[in-house]
Amino acid sequence: MTHTTDDLIWERWISLALMGGVVSSLLSIAVSDILFGISILLWLVHCWKRRKLSLKAPPFIAFLWAFLAAVLIAIVFSSDVLISALYLKKFIKFFYVFLIFTYLNRERVEYALKAMVMVLGISAGYGILQYFWLLDINLVNRIDGFMGHWMTFSGQLMLVSVALGGYLLFYQLPQTLAGGQDGTSQEAEKGERMGWLSREVLSLGAGSVLLALLLFVLVLTHTRSAWLGTMGGLLLLLSVYRVRWLLAAILILIALFFALPSGLKERFYSSFDLTDTTTRGRMELLLTAKNMIVAHPWTGLGPNMVSRRYQDYNETDEFETWLYQHLHNNFLQIAAEMGVITLLIWVALWVRLFWDFARFFRDPASDRFLSCLAMSGIGVLVAFLLAGLFEYNFGDSEILILLLFFITIPYVVHGGQEKGA
């Protein structure tokens, strides 16, 4: 990509619209889609002006193409091709990967991360108002921040909390302990080091307070899948940073659990109660998914067909239709709708990302920020996949946008580091 003054201006506007699309997904999917559309429009105009396609693909793109091919095959074999073809709208969101990898850089990535945390902090503050003053809270009416559903809100809290935890542990804290030095600059004078230290301490403290706020509000959402994902992601990060910290965190979690109000503890206990309505509903979905997969193992029922054909495979008529809107499990949903081969490709994508992020983290040539993003990416993936055992969060556009951002930015910074080497 050339870097004339005109190109730099176009790149700046495209990146601003792109970052706005990602960050605003925490507030409104409509605004996010508008800004994403603007970024695509600006990109098209920029390509037309240059008479050249300005687009780069990250190293994992082959897995996305394979996933798309498998989905297309599942659509062809669907009992209702037109309905299943509507699933392809989801793939528009995957264009975020190309634009992020092409137009963001290290500085823009860090700016987007900070904006994201601040915006979600505002949403979390509104969630507290909802819980204590604005809403009559129960299991069918929970806090949702600025989102339309508590599952989306809790998923956002989960992903951003884990990413923020990784940023604090692997970037902010080491930088604070190093006196503000990033490991690449020259040794500062003692007075300058003390100035950096005070600013870094304040930044670390502010980030820690925000993380505590996000986690507190996440507890208030009563969303067990997001609790599980967040704990898995954060505990993994702690185990990599300091095993002693992991043990301390587990003890703190146990103490906090016993200090929780009875309503929140009952919500946790109900996960193991086989007579609980929600638990029985999940078991029904598990059996229904099994029947679908056994009947259509290779290409599935077809995208968008689970909610339309569940009555051919369900085990009981006890539950209302709304229970079968999806299977509340990423793995089961993809296998049932698109077949086992599609599921294996989908899993292979995450394996590739885990492998690359671990390589970035262990590479001695990686600077602190890249190592932080790589480890945060691993934590985010763990959280997403764990929560996805009990919720079809891959089908949530707001969650997908955040996920695509977090899995692409390590490659952005890694690519920039290689260019600077």
The proportion of residues in beta strands is under 5%
The percentage helix is: over 70%
Low-confidence stretches: 183-197
How large, in whole angstroms, is the Cα Rg? 22 Å
Shape: globular
Supply the helix-strand structural class: mainly alpha
Number of helices: 18
SSE layout and pairings?
Blueprint: H1 5-24, H2 29-50, H3 61-76, H4 81-85, H5 90-93, H6 95-103, H7 106-134, H8 150-177, H9 190-220, H10 224-241, H11 243-259, H12 262-269, H13 277-295, H14 306-309, H15 330-338, H16 340-362, H17 368-387, H18 397-420
Helix pairs in contact: 1-2, 1-6, 1-7, 3-16, 6-18, 7-8, 7-9, 8-9, 8-10, 8-17, 8-18, 10-11, 10-17, 13-15, 15-16, 16-17, 17-18
Short description:
The protein has helices at 5-24, 29-50, 61-76, 81-85, 90-93, 95-103, 106-134, 150-177, 190-220, 224-241, 243-259, 262-269, 277-295, 306-309, 330-338, 340-362, 368-387, 397-420. The protein is mainly alpha-helical and 421 residues long.
Which terms summarize this structure?
single chain; 421 residues; mainly alpha
Characterization of the model:
The chain is mostly helical and 421 residues long. It folds into 2 domains: 1-54; 55-276 and 319-420, no CATH class. 73% of the residues lie in helices and 0% in strands. It has 18 helices and no strands. It has helices spanning 5-24, 29-50, 61-76, 81-85, 90-93, 95-103, 106-134, 150-177, 190-220, 224-241, 243-259, 262-269, 277-295, 306-309, 330-338, 340-362, 368-387, 397-420. Helix 8 packs antiparallel against helix 9 and helix 17 (368-387) runs antiparallel to helix 18 (397-420). The longest helix has 31 residues, at 190-220. Mean pLDDT is 90; it is low at 183-197.
